């Protein structure tokens, strides 16, 4: 059986898009854990056992962790970013949105995440675009070093949250009605972290720490979102994502 290789990280919301896509549209795959830059820094300074969600790297030294990341950059993805999906042919698909769409295009199990209907597909892509705009604004705020500009950035984020919520189906419970779509896969890791709730992530932390400057997503958006507290408990495959296999590469 042809097997794919998923290169990912358990605390990276971008990588979780691929995790969720595979949970909903299964493909035979092996998982390879790739450390984030912050995790490498923590491992070098405090030891691997102190790395956030470091249990996936148990038994690996800081030097081995660094070597694994360099191997990944040299053989899979030169940017060092996750996720990447290595095909049975050896070719590699990169970038979270593209990886998720590739999975959806080749998988035969589960319900397609990108609707066949062209109009609905266009709405899904619009929601994804608007959500991506809000994520970019969040990172601008998190990287801002001028407190006088914090409110300006926060207001921009709220405006973009509203634009995103405006294009969602008003009845839910998912972004576009009763079925999960690619919009849900795209947004879920940021709006709801499986281990903590609606995310207010700090830059570089993978969502493990909160930053009080980041405004929460609107309650009406979270309330009808598929990966809100009640709904996520009904989709255990989303929380676990089947990612239980060991690193390294």
Strand content: 5-15%
**CATH topology category name of the largest domain:** Glutathione S-transferase Yfyf (Class Pi), Chain A, domain 2
Q: Give the overall silhouette.
A: flat
Please count the helical segments. 10
Mean pLDDT: 80
Structural class: alpha+beta
Largest sheet descriptor: 4 strands, mixed
What is the total tally of β strands? 4
CATH architecture of the largest domain: Up-down Bundle
SSE pattern? EHEHHEEHHHHHHH
Question: Given this structure, which CATH class of the largest domain is correct?
Answer: Mainly Alpha
Helix content: 40-55%
Spans of at least 5 consecutive residues whose pLDDT stays below 50 are: 194-209, 220-230, 241-249
Q: For the terminal residues, how far apart are their CA atoms?
A: 20 Å
């Amino acid at each position: 059986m042809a097997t794919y290789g998923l290169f990912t990280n358990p605390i990276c919301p971008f990588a979780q898009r691929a995790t969720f896509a595979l949970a909903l549209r299964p493909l035979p795959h092996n998982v390879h854990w790739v450390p984030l830059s912050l995790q490498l820094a923590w491992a070098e300074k405090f030891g691997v056992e102190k790395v956030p969600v470091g249990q996936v790297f148990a038994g690996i030294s800081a030097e081995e962790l660094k070597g694994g990341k360099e191997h990944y950059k040299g053989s899979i993805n030169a940017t060092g970013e996750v996720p990447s999906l290595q095909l049975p042919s050896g070719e590699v698909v990169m970038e979270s949105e593209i990886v998720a769409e590739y999975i959806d295009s080749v998988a035969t199990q589960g319900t397609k995440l990108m609707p066949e209907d062209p109009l609905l597909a266009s709405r899904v892509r619009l929601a994804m675009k608007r959500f991506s705009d809000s994520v970019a604004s969040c990172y601008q705020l998190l990287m801002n070093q001028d407190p006088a500009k914090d409110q300006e950035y926060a207001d921009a984020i709220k405006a973009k949250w509203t634009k995103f919520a405006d294009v969602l189906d008003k009845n839910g419970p998912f972004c576009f009605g009763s079925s999960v779509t690619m919009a849900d896969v795209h947004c879920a890791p940021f709006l709801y972290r499986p281990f903590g709730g609606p995310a207010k992530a700090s830059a570089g932390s993978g969502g493990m720490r909160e930053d009080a400057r980041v405004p929460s997503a609107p309650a009406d958006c979270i309330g009808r979102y598929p990966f809100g507290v009640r709904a996520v408990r009904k989709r255990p495959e989303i929380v676990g994502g089947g990612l239980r296999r060991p690193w390294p590469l």
